[in-house]
Amino acid sequence: MGRFLSENPLVLLIGACEVGFWVLLGAGLVTRYVLRARRVSTVLLVLVPVLDVVLVTASLLDVATGAQPGLTHGLAAVYLGFTVAFGHSMIRWADRRFAHRFAGGPPPPPPPRYGAAKVAYEWREWGKMVLAWGIALGVIAVTAMVAGTGIPAPADWPADPMWSWAARLAPVVGIWFVGWPLWTTLSPPRAPDTLEAPR
Prior knowledge:
mainly alpha, disordered C terminus
């Protein structure tokens, strides 16, 4: 394990970015709602996306200086895609709970469970997944161009160490589509009838 990490420093950087995301988020929210230092909290929260810039820059510099694109570069692209696509909603989720707990804010609303609101919610969540996949594909393509390896045909993605990440995400996108937005659209759940039927 130690040898793998020493030979793949990008893995350590990805882990550091994940830890940094939660540390900055937690520090920003504690500073805002517990210490009441809103300006400082804003600076801390603005630093969260800076981690993404650091990661993608390090990945591109790695291949630009001669490293062969591999699994870790693909993982960095996937991580970036997910943090960009889902990061804002995760921050909003945490912010609402901190505001409720420490600033007398309203209870966070639960996700919709029924009807058109549920359908719209599932399409939005799946859209984030598509965005994450698209960003990952874009970063992988840019990494390949910087490295000068070119972009292989989709049929060759599973055999390529870096592009195999794009192939892995494709079925996730498809299964998510069928199991949630499509299924919910075709059969939207209805709220149970809370009124007692007349006798």
